[in-house]
Amino acid sequence: MAIVRAERLTFHYPRQGPSAPLALNGLDLTLEAGQFIAVLGSTGSGKSTLLQHFNGILQPVSGSLQILEYTFVGGEKQKGLKSLRQRVGLVFQFPEHQLFEETVERDLKFGPLQFGQSEEEAAASARKALRQVGLDDALLQASPFELSGGQIRKIAIATVLSSNPEVVVLDEPTATLDPVSRTELIQLLHRLCREEGKTIVMVTHRLDEVFAYADTFVLMKEGTVTFQGTRSELMSQPEQLEAAGIVIPSTLRFAALVMERTGAAWEELPYDIEAWADWIAARLKDIQNDYDGENGKEDQLCKPK
Amino acid sequence: MQAKMMIGRYVAADSWIHRLDPRAKLIAMVIYLVAVILAEQFTELAALTVFALLIMMSSRISLYRYFRASRPLWFIMAFMFIFYMLFDKSGNSLVNVAGLNITTGGVTYGAYAVWRMALLVTFTAILTFTTTPVDLNLGLERVFKPIKYAGGSPQQWSMMIGISLRFIPTIFEEADKVMKAQASRGADAQDLSFTQKGKMVMTLMVPVIVSAFRRAEELVQAMEARGYVLNAPRTSLRKLAWSGADHAFMALFIAMLLLVMWW
After folding, report:
1. Which of A180, A204, A222, B180 is deepest in the core (most CB within 10 A)?
2. What pLDDT does A170 receive?
3. Where is the ABC transporter domain (chain A) (predicted)?
């Protein structure tokens, strides 16, 4: 089932005037439910603008956009999108700017209460969301302003998870996080996708952090989608990454070099460090076995295989 | 939201008003302010309006922009009008229902007050529309010079005003961010009733004020990191030049003030 279907989607920011370049320029995109989707592109490619369309914060200027059962047609402003926003949770860029309550608990309960949960249900949702992002209940009574940057970011993500949305849309959630928290966060999102069947749409600049996890990769440039496909499709077209201005991860560069030297196909090569270690270990074992075997039979020594 | 906020924004256009010395414009605005406050009759206000319109038209900026600049204050203007209407009891009675007595005096004074306010706002917009922030700051610093003899620091004052003007769009951006976050979590200001909207504004205040303070703190550190020392003597790259046009501009305003005073 498609959760997002955009056709000739165009958007420009009104305050920039009609002569400013379009933020989204006739974009076509279809996204499937239950997947982990990574959206990549350099700054100014329209990633954030696209994400804010997913729960109707921004609405198309022209073209059409279908999200779940909701259809937006260019130029027609829609109101009363509460039920859409319950089902599609959006975590903005710089999540530290999106907390507005006095305590963490009230911030976490804000969404559930707005979406009609009772006080007790909301409190339970808040606790659950906080635990999902790996934080302690002790933080519930803290003020968001007295926490560390990483904690604030996790709480901002939890404030969206507490409403239990079907689709979680995140705008650069890993930026400015330390490497450990970054991996933790991606694994959390991956778990939500696999175990709870949520659709995850995540914007990032770093292909390496999502490369092993995402099912679908979307590359954007100048307000359009330049590539959409699976990991192996992406691996076979590294020029697409370069064109979109994305740094190619070292594992992928390594694979490209191995392919160049050995003539192996993309499909045979691993894509993350662990798998590479296994792959190399297996090759070494093969060589060792061959060597041992050859030593056993004197007459075969030095003969080509 | 930002699109609605027109105060404090420079509009590039090449007119003789744009080229005037910022000091001349600043002093002219003060003279105009005094004239508007002194004006009490219909003819005086009408004359000031014509005067303002002429100046605005020669700035090569569309009158619609000036009109839009007054938009944030419409609510206050409406409030002022209603206040005068309800509480000023001079003149003849117009409507007298259920203890509510609206008089001609109330309506006229209310209208005059709104008129004055509109004149002030749209005309002061000339200053910010035609003067770049840098020039404005420099002009303020010079105009504030007398403060020095009273023990104050003109640099400090002009810096303060310059930064506050610069911060207006930033603070609106910040509020916009929080409003988007609230809308995303099910509280869209568009869908709320009037009282609920009021409550939302309250939840907006705390994070916006906190972040404004945080930004101010960061700005101070950034300035000091680049060697800014408060009240250190400094020269400026741009020199202000007072020309014949500035003399003429001043003369025009002084004549206008005298006219209003001895009408």
Report:
1. A204
2. 92
3. 4-247
B90 with B56: CB under 8 angstroms? no
CA A37 – CA B186 distance, rounded (Å): 24
Picking from A57, A80, A111, the nearest residue to B191 by CB comes out as A80
CB contact under 8 Å between A85 and B185, yes or no, is: yes
If you compute the radius of gyration of chain B from its CA atoms, what whole number of angstroms results? 22
List, for residues B208-226, the tens digit of each pLDDT value.
888 888 888 988 899 999 9
Picking from B85, B77, B123, the residue whose alpha carbon sits closest to that of residue B104 is: B85
| Tens-digit pLDDT profile for residues A228-237 | 998 888 877 8
Average pLDDT per block of 10 residues along chain B, 263 residues long: 54 84 90 89 88 88 84 87 83 74 84 90 86 84 83 81 80 84 82 78 82 86 88 78 88 88 77
* Cα–Cα distance for residue pair B27/B9, rounded to 1 Å: 19
CA separation for the pair B113, A163 (Å, rounded): 50
Residues A105, A127: Cα–Cα separation, whole Å: 8
Size of interface A-B (CB pairs under 8 A): 68
How do the residues of chain A divide into helix, strand and coil, expressed in percent and rounded to 5? 45, 20, 35
Contacts of A163 in chain B (CB under 8 A): 185-186
**Tokens representing A45?**
């490619």
